[in-house]
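The material for today's practical consists of a large collection of protein records. A record pairs a protein's sequence with a compact description of its fold. Instead of coordinates, the fold is spelled out as a row of discrete tokens. We will come back to this pairing of sequence and fold again and again. Here is such a record, shown just as it appears in the course material.
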Amino acid sequence: MAKYLRNLLRPWKVVTFLLGTAFFVWGALYWDLATWDVGVSFLMSILCFLFAPWAVEFGLDSVRRRPRRWGLRLLAAAAVVYMIGSGSYEIYNTLRMGHHPITYWENLFFSVPVTVMAGLVWRWDGSIADFVRELRRALRDTERRSS
């Protein structure tokens, strides 16, 4: 757990978290959507930052290694992604507005993929320089295989 939190606190991850949160707060302030406010922007951003890397890694590990009950592990990872990207939105807005948000499907189709993408990025266990090196290596390998 301590290693996971230390890895999350890499400067580039904190900066991207703050930029993403600022974007969603800006959207809440300037786009007139009844179910999108500053509170849900902070809630979903924080949940995403804290849990999406774990959920994505847990899901990928379940598929790659196929441990005992891997399907249940994959389902658990999907449930965490759902709760980050949609469940928290539903609960927040149901409590705030007194009814289920009418924008459920729009949010689901936007927020769940964003959660997965953020989890894929934030699960990276290195610096930005390491990431660029690995990306260049992967691109070179892809070019060699396609030639």
